[in-house]
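Fig. S4 source data, part A: sequence.
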Amino acid sequence: MPMRPIVLLILFLALISQAADAETLDLERIFASPDLAGPTLRRAELSPAGDRVTFLKGREDDRSLLDLWEYNVAEDTTRVLVAADELMDGDVELSEEEQARRERARIADLRGIVDYRWSADGRFLLFPIGGNVFVRDMQSADGEVRQLTDSDAFDTDPQIAPDGRHVAFVRERELWLADVDSGETRPLTDSATDTIANGVAEFIAQEEMGRSTGFWWSPSGEHIAFLQIDESPVAVTRRYEVQADTIEMVEQRYPYAGTDNVTYRLGVVQIASGDISWMDLGDETDIYIPRVKWLPNSEQLSFQRQSRDQQTLELVVANIDSGETRTLLTETSDTWVNLHDDLRFLTEMPAFIWSSERDGYRHLYLYDYEGEVIRRLTDGPWQVDALAGVDEEMGMVYFTGSEVSTTEKHLYRQSLVTQSPEVVNRVSRRSGWHEVGMDADARVYVDTFSSSRQPPQLSLHTVDGERLAWLVENRLDDDHPYGPYRDGHQPTEFGSIVAPQGHKLHYRLIRPAGFDPERRYPVFVHVYGGPTHRMVTDSWSRRLLIDQYMARRGYVVFSLDNRGVERQGKAFQDAAYLKLGQVEMPDQMVGVDWLRSQDFVDPDRIGIFGWSYGGYMSLLALAQYPGDFAAGVSVAPVTDWTLYDTHYTERYMGRPQDHPQVYEQGNVMHYAEAMTDPLLLIHGMADDNVLFTHSTKLMHDLQARAFPFELMTYPGEKHAIAGEGPRLHVYRTITAFLDRHLLLGEGTP
């Protein structure tokens, strides 16, 4: 069937516009080096003394290869501290455990120095490369870097003692110790088996709880607390990972929703003697231990005990000599209790800081050691994101939060003796997104700032917000990698829509290049929608560049945050409880209806795209609202929640044996029979997070009713499809599919 003349004209004008632009932003450039965002910046940290800032930075010619850099405050100089290729010979073959750790940490595409730690005294920097552990003596005149371990085994998660004398690490599922001076190593545990591991963070701790380690040094450096996990209750799942030329059968203990989890023991090992004492975790074994933290006296250890249904979270303190415990406080909820890292035991007074969502928004409280509230520190219809630092001498607490807007993150401060918790002082000044790290005394902070207009910048500030120095200014000028495309950068518009039920839905919108209000444009709806992540933020990301690319191709780009997402109050999140798959798309359709009411939108050419939970949302869009979308793209989607893990799924849906109807209503296949619109399904064939089975079940269901859809699979790729070539191929495939259905409007040839 011939194309409509008006569509041909629009396409011709778009091509002419692109030809006139000497520097066309294309996918090849987005994924090439140097990074269009400027230097790849990770893990900016102040030294314990606050005299220097260290950070990981990607090479200009290879943004995935990271070196360790420093900014010296006294000298006002920035330099490479440790170059990765000086310590490694070519690419390193990672162990399966390390590959899994990096996938969990979303750094599977990075190489070189991907992690580091300071000793508490500021003398040593510790970092792993190629399965071995290295230390740099900051007091050495020549900047000596020594290899501390050298083993055929892959040493992971190295952590240096606060006194700088020893380094602990995990080797072959056991906890080991290395002497920094002599380099001598010895095991601290010897009980590991195929199912028992010491000092290791289990799968769901890394993936869902935000805990990447399984051991913790005492402040004195004399003890290490560690979790011993027993995976034997978790059934072995046999699944296939399809590589390019082989098919590997993987046996993985994957805790599907409703099935058994690992069990825990919490031990404390004395470094000098090797003796281990075990803490009393209580009679109930079907629990989670999401956090462990020492008290300043090194004689007591706290741990958080979370019930299986995640509706109860207890802060427990144990005496390491006797193992006896007492519960300091208990958080409860009719839905679920969100985890956080906002526990800080003070040293100048017998008190601690803790955050809670008990009044509907996460706020900070000061407690005494009897678990009684001394005073509330913050208040208001906004959320504390994270505790950033405490200056006990000055009596100030610093934190990031959403007081300005849900679309921005800022640094704030409050007095520890405040009588007005609703009045907080904003420290950061520029509108946008501030990721903050403070020194131990909370006297200066390092700020990784970005916005929808500015790629990430790294700077050092006083606690009054005054900038002391640029570490990486990353000025967006003609010499910046994004400089040639700066003039074509489309502004991001932020706004909100009130849903019929009365709740506010925030959105962001990018208009097409060369926008003409008299024309009607296709829409690229970029969706996520899951409880742990917002799309509508004033920040810079690779996602933003994809959206800019689509806007330059002639699309209106639109994202909306539906009920269930974080940072908008607990009630806004709680609306999704026992209703995953039921509340998200009604909210998204409020946004779609708003788009249709705009004169510049073609209501017949609205497409939707999402990855992971966003992929789930794309499928729900086509299945729950057939005929409303011209096309949908779903990458690595959840389709059946019984195939996802315990901690994430049960938090929002309960156990499938307790709520079978909830799982049925959240299952894509429950609605898929109504699907009529063009679908592109994409999945990595070695995905160990959202298993490939999610997509194969959907494929089988759609094929059983002879529904035509397009499919692209990636041999050997995990959930992120992180390979540089494959990731480029993903977006080429997505763009071609959407262009065919939305720009040309002709459907599948």
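Fig. S4 source data, part B ends here. The chain has twelve helices and 44 strands.
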